[in-house]
């Protein structure tokens, strides 16, 4: 069991803290709505990843290995949805014409969880984790549980950094001349993440 502790922790940290669709969307959400209003989205992402890890342990990787078309369809659908979200970030709908109220809402808990099933990076991360690191034999359950707990602890901390970074940018967005540029930048890097996914 000790042999996988450091490798698993490094893998989880690397996969969750590096740029990707989740972290780009969290940065945009933090910048637009603040960290506190982004917390349900963070919780949903964590739940979605944990559920994917469980499914991977039950054979999701095996399913994709034998039905590669299913994985390809999910990758294309997920990439298209990420591009759609990137456009929404780059060109927000703005405020209500009646009262000047912001009509946009941050992604909520359920959306965060379901988004993982359209997020190609999440599939790569969870299937790899449950294919490479669990020990065989009697240690399979304990090692798999350790992987789950590692994600449960590290993932929310890692992705919160991006939401927190976005909330720091919120002050910049209050000035109109910078807000538009920042939206375009965040939308652009969200769209750029699709390029790496489709390679």
Give the count of helical stretches.
Answer: 9
Residues in helix, %? over 70%
Order of helices and strands: HHHHHHHHH
Summed over residues and divided by their number, the pLDDT gives a mean of 85
The best one-word shape is: globular
**Rg calc:** 18 Å
From the N-terminal CA to the C-terminal CA, the straight-line distance is 34 Å
Q: State the major sheet.
A: none
The SS-based structural class is mainly alpha
Strand fraction equals under 5%
Write down how many β-strands occur, each being a DSSP E stretch of 2 or more residues. Answer: 0
List the helices and strands and how they pair.
Layout: H1 2-17, H2 21-33, H3 35-57, H4 60-66, H5 68-90, H6 109-115, H7 120-132, H8 140-173, H9 176-197
Helix pairs in contact: 1-8, 2-3, 2-8, 2-9, 3-6, 3-7, 3-8, 4-5, 5-9
């Amino acid at each position: 069991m000790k042999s996988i502790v450091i490798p698993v922790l490094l893998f989880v940290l690397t996969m969750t803290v590096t740029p990707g669709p989740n972290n780009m969307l969290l940065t945009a959400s933090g910048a637009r709505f603040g960290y506190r209003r982004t917390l349900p989205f963070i919780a949903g992402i964590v739940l979605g990843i944990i559920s994917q890890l469980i499914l991977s342990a039950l054979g999701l990787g095996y399913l994709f290995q034998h039905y590669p078309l299913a994985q390809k369809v999910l990758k294309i659908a997920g990439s298209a949805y990420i591009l759609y979200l990137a456009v929404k970030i780059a060109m927000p709908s703005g405020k209500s014409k009646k009262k000047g109220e912001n009509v946009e809402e941050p992604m909520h808990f359920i959306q965060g969880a379901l988004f993982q099933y359209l997020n190609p990076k999440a599939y790569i991360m969870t299937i790899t984790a449950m294919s490479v690191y669990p020990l065989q034999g009697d240690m399979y359950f304990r090692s798999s549980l350790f992987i789950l707990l590692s994600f449960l602890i590290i993932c929310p901390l890692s992705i919160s950094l991006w939401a927190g970074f976005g909330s720091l940018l919120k002050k910049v967005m209050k000035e109109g001349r910078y807000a538009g540029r920042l939206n375009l930048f965040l939308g652009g890097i969200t769209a750029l993440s699709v390029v790496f996914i489709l390679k």
